Amino acid sequence: MTGRHGIDRRSLLTSAALGGATIVGASALGGLDADAAFAAPVPSLDPAVSRSSFIDGRVSQIKGSTLDVVESDGTHRLIQLTNATSIWKLETVTAEAVEAGDGLYARGVEMPDGSVAADAVWVNIVNLYVTVRGIERSRLHLSHGRNALVGHIVAKRTTASFRGGALTSNLSQLKIGHHAQVLGAWRPADDSVDIARISVGH
């Protein structure tokens, strides 16, 4: 799935797709933050379940607790949200935060009717390698390949790591020209990104 400016979100959560399949909530499988999405595979907690199902696509409709998701090949898949489903959208959120038009990755257990009961859903998550082109108080101007991109600095959410150091909310070390990795949540409305973490010098 690629946004208007070429932000490729496909395959970002391959490792998460290979993780546990039991519907126990993603936090029991190692967390739900942006880093957890890219963590090493976790063995299933249920020996009766050999593998989890994985869906990535865009939400076309929401009916109660069921998401109708269209994958990149046009296939419609139904995702059931349960009381054990953990949902990330820059932070842990409730199902009400998921909107039609959102892109998502979901991991869960396939049901007999072909739907997937999700234990973890990451909404609009992106993992981008960028160059810093401009710095303002509440946003960064970035380039991702040939594409310009705005990264929003979110109060009490955006953190930075410099040269492998501890995470900090102080972005004063960030300089124009820095090459960085950005984990965050894509905004479908304008193709900008809310920054969860920006890492420089890793």
From TrEMBL:
InterPro entries: TAT_signal. PROSITE patterns: TAT (PS51318). It comes from the Bacteria. This is Cell wall protein. It comes from Streptomyces griseofuscus.
